[in-house]
Amino acid sequence: MAGVVKGCRACGGSLTVTMADLGMQPASNAFIASAAEVAEERRFPLRAKVCDACRLVQVDYDVAPQELFGNYVYFSSYSDDWLLHAQRYCEMARQRFGLSADSLVVELASNDGYLLKNFVNMGIPVLGIDPSDTVAAAAEQIGVPTLVEFFGADLADKLARGRQADLIIGNNVLAHVPLLNDFVAGIGRLLKPTGHATIEFPHLLELIEHVEFDTIYHEHYSYISLFAIEQVFSRHGLRIYDVETLPTHGGSLRIFAAHSRRTDLADSGALIEVRAREKSAGLRELSTYMQFARRVDECRASLLNFLADAKRASKTVAAYGAAAKGNTLLNFCQVTPADIVMVADRNPNKQSKLLPGTHIPVVSPQVLMQSKPDYVLILPWNLQSEIRQQLRGIEEWGGRFVTPVPLTRVHP
Question: pLDDT exceeding 70 applies to what percent of the chain?
């Protein structure tokens, strides 16, 4: 499955309105390991469009999942903040859903087992499902059983013949799913009649309000509002009954869902409030999405002006965090190694490689600190507090931190 999307992946509606056109871009995690790979590098259109009918925002060109996730180099365990977020979630879930040694927790896109290991330590049976053999192997090493599969209705049917899940978790996976209906249908089939599902995803409302266009990349097929996803869940016999707003990934929602036929779960006040916020912000109006492109252009201009000023002043700029969002930003701005000399990352799987598209070298944080750049551009701006703490030593030579969205800002 690849190529131009002709209709909405949720409802089949028309995609006539472009929210952001970010040009031709490589897959955001397709890091370059050799000169031969530079010559073979592929680029694809990166456009976010909005459905005329259900208002689901989505990219209109699909890159095959195998090309995006086959040798995946994102490991959740390299973010301390994210590990703490996962631990707190597991403690909450055990209490709220009464989980025990008789329960089964299934996580979709379980990555390296960073979350499920908490339930393992509590003595609660788990199963991880992830399409990447690289991260699944890491999960198995810490005692988290993991299936290397793409999740959907067929796999759910096979698993449900053995045992259904008391809790299904999907953190930052819904946006990564090209076949949205198949995925949500699978949740309904694998979930016990009395079970619950919690799904976290970056909130489209925050993306629009804070110009977080760098979270648009080929791995993210959809950009989700509560309004749009409630329609999808309802189509497959599931009902969202509660929601939490989270600070993660620039502002996220955690939705709580169960089978629609359940009568013991009323809509929460928080759910009613988020519905009202989205409506007030115009997420049901096409004009809201049409205005976004101008703000994206302003963000690009502010970063390019900063880099030009730094070059004129003979200042060196390095970056931190070889994140997918950073690759979208740098490729959209057509940045080169002449503008940003290196990007540091804690993940050894990314080090000694080149960023896709821009070919900026990826180094360890130690190399960045030894080079003493004048500025450090924080690409995963959602983790800036953690990163500024890790690199606080740059103050010794007068180095300063920079964040790129919604406009480039040099921090004191």
Answer: 96
15's tokens: 């995609």
Give the pLDDT mean for 201-211: 95
Q: What string of H, E and C letters represents the secondary structure of the chain?
A: CCEECCCCCCCCCCCCEEEEEEEEECCCCCCECCHHHHHHCCCEEEEEEECCCCCCEEECEECCHHHHHCCCCCCHHHCHHHHHHHHHHHHHHHHHCCCCCCCCEEEECCCCCCCHHHHHHCCCCEEEEECCHHHHHHHHHCCCCEEECCCCHHHHHHHHCCCCEEEEEEECCHHHCCCHHHHHHHHHHHEEEEEEEEEEEEEHHHHHHCCCHHHCCCCCCEEECHHHHHHHHHHCCEEEEEEEEECHHHCEEEEEEEECCCCCCCCCHHHHHHHHHHHHCCCCCHHHHHCHHHHHHHHHHHHHHHHHHHHHCCCCEEEECCCHHHHHHHHHCCCCCCCCCCEECCCCCCCCCECCCCCCEEECHHHHHHHCCCEEEECCHHHHHHHHHHCHHHHHHCCEEEECCCCCEECC
Tokens of 221: 């097929």
Top CATH class, 76-289:
alpha beta
**Residue whose structure tokens are 């028309």:** 14
The fold adopted by the segment(s) 314-410 is Rossmann fold (3.40.50)
Q: Where are the domains of the chain?
A: 76-289, 314-410
Mean pLDDT value of segment 211-239 = 95
**Predicted pLDDT at 261:** 96
Percentage of the chain modeled with pLDDT above 90: 84
Q: Which of 60-64, 171-175, 267-271 has the lowest mean pLDDT?
A: 60-64
